[in-house]
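Quick one: C-alpha coordinates for this chain, please?
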Amino acid sequence: MATVLGIFALCTLLSGGASAYFWYQSSKVMIMPMEMDNGEMQPTSITSHPDEWLQAVYLGIEKSGGLNKKAATFTAIAVSLS
Protein backbone atom coordinates (compact mmCIF):
# COMPACT_ATOMS: atom_id res chain seq x y z
CA MET A 1 0.00 0.00 0.00
CA ALA A 2 2.86 2.38 0.79
CA THR A 3 4.32 1.71 -2.65
CA VAL A 4 1.07 2.68 -4.36
CA LEU A 5 0.85 5.89 -2.31
CA GLY A 6 4.46 6.67 -3.18
CA ILE A 7 3.75 6.18 -6.88
CA PHE A 8 0.71 8.48 -6.67
CA ALA A 9 2.78 11.09 -4.83
CA LEU A 10 5.53 10.91 -7.45
CA CYS A 11 3.04 11.16 -10.32
CA THR A 12 1.41 14.16 -8.60
CA LEU A 13 4.80 15.83 -8.22
CA LEU A 14 5.72 15.20 -11.86
CA SER A 15 2.41 16.42 -13.27
CA GLY A 16 2.52 19.48 -11.00
CA GLY A 17 6.01 20.25 -12.23
CA ALA A 18 4.93 19.80 -15.84
CA SER A 19 1.98 22.15 -15.34
CA ALA A 20 4.24 24.77 -13.74
CA TYR A 21 6.64 24.47 -16.68
CA PHE A 22 3.87 24.99 -19.24
CA TRP A 23 2.37 27.94 -17.30
CA TYR A 24 5.84 29.52 -17.23
CA GLN A 25 6.40 28.93 -20.95
CA SER A 26 3.01 30.43 -21.81
CA SER A 27 3.90 33.59 -19.91
CA LYS A 28 7.11 33.98 -21.94
CA VAL A 29 5.53 33.93 -25.42
CA MET A 30 6.91 36.89 -27.37
CA ILE A 31 4.73 39.08 -29.55
CA MET A 32 7.20 40.97 -31.70
CA PRO A 33 7.08 40.86 -35.51
CA MET A 34 10.54 41.11 -37.05
CA GLU A 35 11.79 42.16 -40.48
CA MET A 36 15.13 41.95 -42.24
CA ASP A 37 16.77 45.39 -42.41
CA ASN A 38 20.32 45.79 -43.78
CA GLY A 39 21.05 42.12 -43.14
CA GLU A 40 19.86 42.24 -39.51
CA MET A 41 16.59 41.29 -37.88
CA GLN A 42 14.84 44.38 -36.52
CA PRO A 43 11.46 44.83 -34.81
CA THR A 44 8.73 45.94 -37.20
CA SER A 45 7.27 49.40 -36.63
CA ILE A 46 3.66 49.28 -35.46
CA THR A 47 2.77 52.45 -37.39
CA SER A 48 4.11 51.24 -40.75
CA HIS A 49 3.01 47.58 -40.50
CA PRO A 50 -0.06 47.23 -38.24
CA ASP A 51 -1.21 44.10 -40.10
CA GLU A 52 1.99 42.27 -39.16
CA TRP A 53 1.48 43.26 -35.53
CA LEU A 54 -2.08 41.91 -35.60
CA GLN A 55 -0.83 38.65 -37.07
CA ALA A 56 1.93 38.43 -34.44
CA VAL A 57 -0.59 39.03 -31.64
CA TYR A 58 -2.89 36.36 -33.09
CA LEU A 59 -0.07 33.82 -33.35
CA GLY A 60 1.18 34.68 -29.85
CA ILE A 61 -2.27 34.21 -28.35
CA GLU A 62 -2.66 30.93 -30.23
CA LYS A 63 0.70 29.62 -28.97
CA SER A 64 0.08 30.80 -25.41
CA GLY A 65 -3.37 29.23 -25.46
CA GLY A 66 -1.94 25.89 -26.53
CA LEU A 67 0.58 25.97 -23.70
CA ASN A 68 -2.14 27.00 -21.22
CA LYS A 69 -4.25 24.05 -22.36
CA LYS A 70 -1.38 21.64 -21.68
CA ALA A 71 -0.77 23.26 -18.29
CA ALA A 72 -4.43 22.99 -17.34
CA THR A 73 -4.45 19.32 -18.32
CA PHE A 74 -1.43 18.55 -16.15
CA THR A 75 -2.94 20.57 -13.29
CA ALA A 76 -6.13 18.52 -13.53
CA ILE A 77 -4.08 15.32 -13.45
CA ALA A 78 -2.16 16.53 -10.38
CA VAL A 79 -5.38 17.46 -8.59
CA SER A 80 -7.03 14.14 -9.39
CA LEU A 81 -4.00 12.20 -8.13
CA SER A 82 -3.73 14.11 -4.86
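The helical segments are 2-27, 50-81.
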